[in-house]
Amino acid sequence: GPLSERRLMDVRLGELPMWLATRDFSPQGLLGAVQKAWSSYHDKYINVKRGGPAGISMLLAGYCLLSYGWSYQHIKCHRWRKYH
Amino acid sequence: MNLSFFDQFTSPCLLGVPLILLSTLFPALLIPSPNNRWITNRLTTLQLWAFHLITKQLMSPLNKKGHKWAIILTSLMVFLLMINLLGLLPYTFTPTTQLSMNMALAFPLWLATLLTGLRNQPSISLGHLLPEGTPTPLIPALILIETTSLLIRPLALGVRLTANLTAGHLLIQLISTATTALLHITPMVSALTMMILLLLTILEVAVAMIQAYVFVLLLSLYLQENI
C-alpha cells in the first residue's frame, strides 16, 4: 500500500527516512504510537491463553538495558579507575 | 565498584531530566488492567489472585468503616512490592531507597489515620496513649512515652523501608566487589564469597517483599486503632 499507511515492520530499510517523514510527531501522535506499540506487544506476548515467563522477562530485560543506558555516562568513568 | 559505594542511589538524570518518575511509573506497565473477560491471561490471573490474597489479609482485622481504605492500602502494597523487587535487577534504580519518597508515602498516610481517629472518636484515640492496667504513679511518664512513640511512627515507617533497602543494596554491591576482586587472587575464597552473594540475593528478595508488607501492615494497624 502507500508508504504512509504501512506499519513499521512492513517498511523497507531504504524507505525508512521517507516513512519517518510521513509520521505524526505531535504529542497526541506520539502518545498514540506508544500506546499502539504497547498494546501490540501486550496482545502478542502477554495477553495470550497459555503465556509463559517470556512476555514479562523480555519487558524486564528491556528495562535493565534502558537503565544501563540511563546510567552509562556515570559508568563510563569506571574504565579509568586504577583499583576496582 | 563505583566512585563511591553510594553512587547507585543517586537519582538518575538524563540530560538534566529526572528519571525517577519513570522508574516509579514502570511497575504500572507490569500490571495490566483487567479486560472484560472472565478468564484472563495467566499473568492477570496470577496478579488478581495475589491482590485478593493481599486485600483479604489486610482487611480482615478492620471493621466496615476501615474497608474504605482497601484500595489505597492494596495499591500501596503492590506499588512497594513491585518497586522493591524491580530494584534487584541489574542497573535498575530503586526509588524507595530515597528517604524523601518513603517519608512522602509514610507521613501523609499516618497523619490521615491519626486525624481520622481524632475527628471521629477523639477520646478513644487519646485513650490509646495509656495502656490498660498501668500503676497510677507511672501514668504521666507513660503518657509522655506513648506520645513520643506515636509521633515517631511516620519517621520509623519511612526510615525502616529506606534503611532496609539501602543496606541490602549496599551489601550486595560490597560482596560482589569482593568476589570480583578476589577472583584473580584466591579463586576458592572467591567461590565462597559467591555462595554468600547468592544467599544474600535470596535474602534481599525476601526483604523486599517483607518490607513492603510490614509498611502496609503497620499502617493498617494504626488505622485499626483509630477507626
TrEMBL record, chain A:
The chain crosses the membrane at residues 54-72. Signal peptide: none annotated. It is found in: Mitochondrion membrane. GO terms for biological process: proton motive force-driven mitochondrial ATP synthesis. Its main location: mitochondrion. Pfam families: WRW (PF10206). GO terms for cellular component: mitochondrial membrane; proton-transporting ATP synthase complex. InterPro entries: F1F0-ATPsyn_F_prd (IPR019344). One of its GO terms (molecular function) is proton-transporting ATP synthase activity, rotational mechanism. Keywords: ATP synthesis, CF(0), Hydrogen ion transport, Ion transport, Membrane, Mitochondrion, Transmembrane, Transmembrane helix, Transport. Belongs to the ATPase F chain family. This is ATPK synthase. The lineage of its organism: Eukaryota, Metazoa, Chordata, Craniata, Vertebrata.
Automatic annotation (TrEMBL), chain B:
One of its GO terms (molecular function) is proton-transporting ATP synthase activity, rotational mechanism. The keyword Amino-acid biosynthesis does not apply. It comes from the Eukaryota. SUPFAM superfamilies: F1F0 ATP synthase subunit A (SSF81336). The chain crosses the membrane at residues 12-31, 69-89, 101-118, 138-158, 170-189, 195-223. It is a multi-pass membrane protein. It is found in: Mitochondrion inner membrane. Pfam families: ATP-synt_A (PF00119). The keyword DNA damage does not apply. CDD domains: ATP-synt_Fo_a_6. Keywords: ATP synthesis, CF(0), Hydrogen ion transport, Ion transport, Membrane, Mitochondrion, Mitochondrion inner membrane, Transmembrane, Transmembrane helix, Transport. It catalyses: H(+)(in) = H(+)(out). GO terms for cellular component: mitochondrial inner membrane; proton-transporting ATP synthase complex. Component of the ATP synthase complex composed at least of ATP5F1A/subunit alpha, ATP5F1B/subunit beta, ATP5MC1/subunit c (homooctomer), MT-ATP6/subunit a, MT-ATP8/subunit 8, ATP5ME/subunit e, ATP5MF/subunit f, ATP5MG/subunit g, ATP5MK/subunit k, ATP5MJ/subunit j, ATP5F1C/subunit gamma, ATP5F1D/subunit delta, ATP5F1E/subunit epsilon, ATP5PF/subunit F6, ATP5PB/subunit b, ATP5PD/subunit d, ATP5PO/subunit OSCP. Belongs to the ATPase A chain family. NCBIfam families: ATP_synt_6_or_A. This is ATP synthase subunit a. The gene is ATP6.
